[in-house]
Structures
1.
Amino acid sequence: MRKRAFLLCAVIAAILLACNPLRADDSVLMISTEDGEKGYSRPMLAAFPQHRLETHTSVTDGPQIFSGPLMRELLADAGFDGDSVRARALNDYEVTIPTSDFERFDVIAAITMNGEELTPRDKGPVWIVYPRDDASELQDIRYDYRWVWQLDRLETP
Ligand SMILES: Nc1nc2c(c(=O)[nH]1)N[C@H]1C(S)=C(S)[C@@H](COP(=O)(O)O)O[C@H]1N2
Ligand SMILES: [Mo]
């Protein structure tokens, strides 16, 4: 009987593991290129040089302080070198962004806002944030829709 109970526990544990919504490697962001894909966990994103950016957004009151890796450094790390990138979010929102944005502006993959980790409830785990206050060009709806919140995948369009 003991053996049976153990087996039952093992089966239940295996099912729970298989159903775990967190991917096995805890990655919150996948970046895929022609050569394959790389998953980034929160600690991996936090290990990049953190760029601090203070800006108004189209969805918050007053300026907010964001930090996270620069988009150009993140994409370079993954070996992504296309002219445009498809950004996809947890809520199935998708938009194509010209990668020249990330050369021209210090756009970040924000993982914190006002010092707090961004969570999926709160536009996280990753939010593409533009230095909106630095250039009037960025204060435009064409850029607003590139501020993908709940970002979970970057890929070739
Ligand atoms: N994940 C996700 N990001 C998104 C969107 C969305 O629906 N889902 N909407 C985009 C659009 S169209 C705009 S204008 C800005 C602000 O959207 P909001 O006002 O719906 O928050 O976020 C962009 N990022
Ligand atoms: Mo929008």
2.
Amino acid sequence: MTINLPLQAPSAAGLIWQVTRNEQAKTPAEREAILADPGFGNHFTDHMVDICWSEKGGWHRPRVSPYGPISLDPAAAVLHYAQEIFEGMKAYRHADGSIHTFRPYENAARMQRSARRMALPELPSEIFIESLQRIIAVDADWVPSAPETSLYLRPFMFAKEAFLGVRPAKKVNYYVIASPAGAYFAGGVEPVNIWLSTQYARAGKGGTGAAKTGGNYASSLLPQAEAYEKGCQQVAFLDDEGNLEELGGMNIVLVKRDGTLVTPESDSILEGITRDSILQLATDRGHVVERRAVPLDEWRSGAASGEIVGAFACGTAAVVVPIGRLLGTDFEIVHAGTEASALALALRQELTDIQYGRIEDRHGWLTRLDA
Ligand SMILES: *Cc1c(COP(=O)(O)O)cnc(C)c1O
């Protein structure tokens, strides 16, 4: 069954969406069974969004269709040259049943920056926001309501053109899929141990580190496996000069004794919206925030002298996690201090209180998706 729905309010781009309902959608009972224990990234909703782009036609044919396999030519450029970008965000259900997302214009702008770096077309912000509203319009029942659960939204874009020559693709597709997410730390937020990779880097100077692109993740998988072998859950990377960069998929913030927060500024890290928001909340509380190059040695000597009392990692999926240990090949930093953990957890609480509508959204960070 296909219904052509004009937009309630025509977007700037004036798109007419084609909506095809999934006849094999999960029953309410099946859906509730999944939502009772969704985990992360295991289950997907009944529908997906896709929009085509071509050099000649620009963005066209926006669709909502049943979730399912994508048919690709074996020569599709993405499969060979990794021309791909993505975003990650969440839809939160508030106590009154309404559904909101967090700072989506920041994700839209970041996806445009990623697109520029990866020679992909930029998706206008209005279409990006509309694509999120469209998937929620059909899959709203998939947004869970248990505490600290959400519907993870995964917009992504890749080179679909079947061509083995090396140049930016002239045919590209943009999609949104959605996956219910459980409370990341069911038993309370536990500090994580981090392995410092010195043999490998996730990105280099002038590389693609600032773009949210699959290749950066591909290059982090081997060091991530090494981290597991060392008994750590995550891996941290340095730049060529020995400055701290970030984890495979989360940013890092160091906490000084006087409450100052220090975080790496670098052209080769992915600038997290969670980090930016947490640092804004910390600034509101009177903390000094420093965004600058952070030599690893500063962390090591600061931890030894007591100048640096802790550290935390942050990103959309896990929100904020205190770092308990940083393990290197020939050294170890242990942050047993409760003070920095308490600060990290207080900032986490405040951020999630805003996201779930439990306190005032004083920065205007929420965008409603279901109306
Ligand atoms: C997505 C991502 C982050 C975190 O960004 P958020 O906007 O906070 O989710 C950090 N590092 C990398 C490499 C990422 O891909």
